[in-house]
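Replying to the earlier thread about multi-chain prediction with a worked example.

Input:
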Amino acid sequence: MTHFDVFGLTPALELDVKALEQQLRALSLEFHPDRFAQADARTRLAALEKTTALNDAFKVLRDPVKRAFYVLKLKGVDLDSEASAAQVKMPLSFLEEVMERRERLEGLKHARDVEQARAMADEIEREKSAALERAKVALERDDVPEATHQLGRVRYLSRFIEEVEALEEEALS
Amino acid sequence: MAYSDKVIEHYENPHNVGTLDKEDPNVGTGLVGAPACGDVMRLQLKISDDGMIQDAKFKTFGCGSAIASSSLVTEWVKGKSIEDAVTITNKDIAQELSLPPVKIHCSVLAEDAIKAAIKDFQEKRARRQSGDASAVKQPTTQP
Ligand code: FES
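Result:
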């Protein structure tokens, strides 16, 4: 059963998250373990499993990035898995760029230049959105290699942004 | 997540962090990334003409396991021939550092980096040799 199945949806890259949230609330009530306190063990277990599945599915589907990675996974490429992720090769020029940027960020960290780091993150955020859009187009077309490439970019760019966010947290504390 | 003592050791005191001259014909550079997390690693090897690894340096932007893995392999490959170095697998690394299964890609990164660095060196050497060959031919075509 896919995360989409849990909500009775067909796999889609665009979702109405508000509607999904409402559906989650309604279904969570319907399957709430308290309502099955008197039921037999099998029914109780089924209700519990349904609740867990709903929450797991919601976590993935609410987030456009996670959702795109999940749609790609349904098409056979799991960028989160330890094994298959190692087989996904990004072009060297891209990795070089990532390395350079991480080195630059390291320098900014030492200099405690949070502002400059934020400026880099903003630029990268834009690249990430563009890559995500391209990935979605590719997924619609069923172009798995291109979608893999674009979501690979998203992964590296997200990592960079996380680093900047951690730096900002640190600067605040 | 709890890291093993060996990971912490390497993480707190990583060996051979740094860079070698990328343009040096005897230096092979391996740049690899892990799409599972978005981290990157650069491993550079200085290799003698007869294929012995004389020096190794790394720069890793990644978790503690990745830093420990790269630190460990730089120690391992020094003094080895490139034939021996390519036989190092992520399993060897993960075992030595007691990495949990979710950290396998971090050691895969180190294995891939060794292979990429050696490949880079070999390609450079091949280019140089074909370059040498044309250099030898040149005098006959030029006055
Ligand atoms: S989590 Fe990224 S290298 Fe280990």
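The longest helix of chain B spans residues 104-141.

Feel free to reuse this layout for your own posts.
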